[in-house]
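Appendix B, example 12.
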Amino acid sequence: MANHQQALWLGIATTAVPRQGRGARPGAHYRRIARAARRHGLRVCLFDPGRQADWSRLSAFAPVDPDRPDGDWEPVSLRFPDVVYENVYVHLAVKGYSAPLRAEAHRRGVPLFNPMLPGKWQMIRFLQRAQLDHLAPETEALTTAEALWRALERWRTVYVKPSGGYGGVNVHRLELLGRDRVRARADRRFGRVRNWERVMDRPHLATFVRSLRGRYLVQRGLRLLRVGGRKVDFRVVLHRDHQGEWQLIGVVPKLAAPDGVVTNIIAGGERWTLERLVSAAKREGKEVPVESLVRAAQTIAEALSRRYPTLGLVGFDMAVEEDGSVRMIEMNPKPARSLLDRPMLEKLAACQAGFARWLTRR
């Protein structure tokens, strides 16, 4: 127990803590982080922030032998960690599941990554203040049906999306047709995965706007690069390293289903490798400006980390328009690891452990 208390601990907050006793092991990525952490003199424990009765005595789960994280793990009782990686599922995080943990870490002066980041509308405002709004599509707050109609007249195609949404839920594509009619389409509406489509006149458009709950945005519909007739965007994942510097983890192309609204895998999108996408685009006489995509993502990440010093991980959905220009569609503060291949995951774990150690030295 003394060794437990004297060690320098990286606590990973997650609901994916094994419930079994000694001998159970957590998921592969947590073991990767634990392996990488040893190179930085850190020990790793997992804990569920929603199941802590007393923050002074953490109920956690850690490797029996810190040098063999692929071996047995066991329940342990620990002091509060020296650094915390908050990795609770996004749908729980937005509902405040980790709020008590964040408050306790703040009270103790313990660095916690990642911090809560702005929603889509606040992100647009942040980019405007940072003079980086040229890297995002033209965006307005959804106010009235009349304002939405004017946006349709200006841009012909718009996306209406919730400011705090995720997973492509309630993202609608609206296209202006002739004779005062609008086609609206969504892949995931109110949590259900289905192809929802309506053709509306102006009175029905007003009813549609009234049906939306919460803050919504209106964005110009980007003229996305198409490969094989399918729209493409790019998940660009970045993480800071043991020196606090941003490193590229990977670029993952996502192709929408034919006539799909979003590229999310759950909504019918498909993951390709970057090499496959670049090759397929080249056969169609199209270039993929990979360096420009990464440079734009890094520019935004650097601006964000100046505002949020413990920001360590971001995933940007980036677009290439038909004219070659690059735009950020949206930011994902908890990008899904399922999109990453094995080398990307190894690099991610190394950066997560290194960044945790860097935070303890600040």
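The two ends are 27 Å apart (CA to CA). The chain is about 30% helix and 30% strand.
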